Amino acid sequence: MPSKILILDGGLGTSLESKYSISFSRSTPLWSSHLLISDPTTLESCQSDFGAVPVDVLLTATYQASIKGFADTRTEEFPDGIGREIIPRFLDDAVNIAQRAVGENAKVALSYGPYGACLIPSQEYSGKYDDAHDSESTLEEWHRERLGLFADVPDVGKRVSHVALETIPRVDEIIAMRKALAATPALSDLPYWTSCLSPGADLALPDGNSIESAVEAMLDRDVSPNTPWGIGINCTKVDKLDSLLQIFESTVARLIEQGRLDTWPALVLYPDGTNGEVYNTTTQKVGTTRRRQGPGALIMGVSSRERG
Which of 184, 283, 285, 308 lies most in the core, judged by the most C-beta atoms within 10 Å? Predict the structure, then answer.
């Protein structure tokens, strides 16, 4: 019988820094995605490390990829930044690199972060956005335009197995991202997961909303008829998982009992996996006072009903 637990790759940005001595700064607004432009060979080596574990699912290096991030990237080849029409070429490379890194042994998932992940300093741990992107409607518009970049990748729906909507700090953005994905034909039929984070001392999202409201937004069929394959938690301390998972499980059980959900989604978990190190989003260095950038992946897998 196939395993009901799948292993996901780890924190790409952290691995690039610690093993390959890659550093990120304000001159690299694409973060890990910058290597698609500057050093795809090193990126493939790092992702191949995960493939050699082996993992069952590998995320593409596209978490922070955005139109503005590419426009603000200056290189010798692109001294004035990279225009929208060129971006799909690099996203195509991201999928190719991930595919080569795992070969036939694993699946590739499209990594897609929130608006806050594309800011400098990043704001996915706070959910505090500028006025132009501070509502469900404006966030949906922004995500529709950004997802259009991925839709222009040749045969993307056949080359990736899942779309990962990750590290979402706000309930209105969970809704906006689900709506935007449903409105992107090249991606809308793919299985996807949504994951939120709870970085503070309380059991809540960065925007102050409850975990219950986040789970409801992830699964509400009125938001999108395409309910996610999985829901989960990332970029959150391991010692908070038990309490958070109890909320996840009770909320899903209630939705099923109320007839608002038909089946249990898969449970996707990739909490922070450091030894106390955290990432400072302002200095863009690993330290001990704040959390680090990007998903720190450990494991993904079984549905909540099977947790026992």
Answer: 184
SS3 108: strand
Name which of 161, 168, 177 is nearest 199 in CA terms: 168
Pairing of strands 57-59, 107-112: parallel
- Domain assignment present for residue 168? The answer is yes
pLDDT digits (tens, 9 = 90+) for 223-257: 999 999 999 999 999 999 999 999 999 999 999 99
Instruction: Print the SS3 string covering 143-170.
Output: HHHHHHHHHCCCCHHHHCCEEEEEEECC
Residue 297 included in any domain = no
Q: Which two tokens stand for residue 93?
A: 């490379």
The total of structural domains in the chain comes to 1
| 173 part of a folded domain | yes
Cis peptide before 191 (omega within 30 of 0): no
Task: Kindly give, in sequence order, each residue whose CB lies less than 8 Å from that of residue 200, ignoring residues fewer than 6 positions away.
Answer: 206
Q: Is residue 50 part of a domain?
A: yes
Question: Which structure tokens are listed for 224?
Answer: 């999108």
pTM: 0.89
Supply the range of the domain harboring residue 169: 12-288
**Strand boundaries in 146-274, DSSP class E:** 162-168, 192-196, 230-234, 266-270
Tell me the pLDDT tens digit for each residue of 101-111: 999 989 999 99
